[in-house]
Amino acid sequence: MFAFFKRKRSKELAKNRLKLILSYDRAGISPGMMENLKNDLLEVMRKYFPAGKNDFEVSLEQQGSQVVFVANLPDLDSPKTS
Amino acid sequence: MKSKAIVVTSGKGGVGKTTTSANISAALAKTGEKIAVVDTDIGLRNLDVVMGLESRVVFDLIDVFEGRCKLNQALIRDKRVDSLFLLPASQTKDKTALSKRHMKAAVNALIEGGFDRVIIDSPAGIEDGFKTASAAADGAIVVVNPEISSVRDADRIIGLLEAQNIKEIKLIVNRIRPDMVQRGDMLGISDILDILGIKLIGIVPEDENVLISTNTGKLISLNDNSKLGAGIAFNNIAKRIHGEEVSYLELEAPQGFFSGIRKFFGGN
Ligand SMILES: Nc1ncnc2c1ncn2[C@@H]1O[C@H](COP(=O)(O)OP(=O)(O)OP(=O)(O)O)[C@@H](O)[C@H]1O
Ligand SMILES: [Mg+2]
C-alpha cells in the first residue's frame, strides 16, 4: 500500500520541483543565493529579536506574471529594547 | 494560426523539432497550402533525411545566401506532396555563416514568391542558431516532452520568443505516454499547460512508428491508410494551424490503447 502511494507521486514531485526551479529561473536568482540571503536575514533577525524562535521562511512565489520574494517572520513580539 | 512564418523550437535538444517540422509541413501541404520547410540546423542537417529527400540535395541555404544559386534552385519538391518544398541546411559550413538578415530575406522571398507558409526547423539551444532561426518568424511552435528539463527549457525559450515580440506561441507536447500519465508517473498535459501558460496546439503520443518512418524516409503524417497515433496527431495539428477546430477528444492515439483523452490530460 505504501509503495503504491509512493509510486503515484513521481509526477507530483516532478511538478513541484519544476515550479520551484522555474521560480528561480524566472527571477534570475540561484537557489544558493537564496540560501545565503536567508542565512544573512536570520542573522540580522537574531540581532534584533534574540528571543525569537527564528523559524521563518524565505521563498519565491509566482504572482501572476511576477515573481515575488516572500519572507515569513512569525513571533516578532519581543524585540530587544536596547 | 495567423502567422505565415512559424519557427519550431524547444531549447532542449532531441525533443522532436525536426520530426514535428517535417510532419506538420507535409500535413499542411496536404490540406492545400503551399509550404516551404526550412532546415536551419547548420552543420547538423537532418530534415532532408527525415523527409526521405537526402539524395536530391544539391544546393543549400548557405549557397543561397552566398549567391552560389537562386532560392528556387535550392528548393526541393517533395516526392509525394506537390505543394511541399524543403530548403536544406548546409552540412559543411558552420553556424556563423547564417545571419538574421539573410534569414529574413529568404523567408520574405519565399512568402512573396507564393508560399502560403514557411515552417522553420530551429536547432537546439538558446544561442545564435535559435536566434537566427526565429528572427524571421511571426509565430512559434514550442515542442516539449513531458519531462522536467524539457519543460524548464521551454519556459526559457518562451521568454525569449516573447522578448522578440513573437505574438503567436503555441505548444506541442510530444512523446506523451498515456499509460504513464494515468498511473501518475508522467507530467500530464494540464500540468504542463499550467506551468508554461501558453496555448496548446497538439498532443503527440510516443509512437515507435515515428522511428520506423525515419528509417524508411516516409513521413508518418502522409501514411493515410494507417491509424497510427503520431500520424493522426500531426494531421490534427496541421488542421488546427490551418484554423479548423479539431477536438482533442477525437484522440490522437491508437484505439484501445487507452480509453479517453481525459487520461492524457492527467489532472488529479
Ligand atoms: N512521438 C515520438 N515517438 C517516438 N519517437 C519520437 C517521437 N518524436 C520524436 N521521436 C524520436 O526522437 C528523436 C529525436 O527527434 P528529432 O530529431 O525530431 O528531435 P529534434 O528536436 O529535432 O533534435 P535536435 O535538437 O537534435 O535537432 C528521433 O529519433 C525521433 O525519431
Ligand atoms: Mg532537429
How would you briefly describe this protein structure?
By secondary structure, chain A is α+β, with helices and mostly antiparallel strands.
Question: Could you please describe the fold and organization of this structure?
Answer:
The complex is a heterodimer of chains A (82) and B (268). In chain A, strands 1-2 form a two-stranded antiparallel ribbon. Chain A has helices at residues 2-8, 10-27, 31-48, and strands spanning 57-63, 66-72. The relative contact order of chain A is 0.14. Chain A is built from 3 helices and 2 strands. The longest helix of chain A has 18 residues, at 10-27. The mean pLDDT of chain A is 74. Chain B is an alpha/beta fold. The model of chain B is unreliable at 250-263 (pLDDT under 50). Chain B is built from 12 helices and 8 strands. The longest helix of chain B has 16 residues, at 148-163. Chains A and B meet through helix 2 of A and helix 7 of B. The complex binds adenosine-5'-triphosphate and magnesium ion (MG). Magnesium ion is lined by residues 17-18, 41, 46, 121 of chain B.
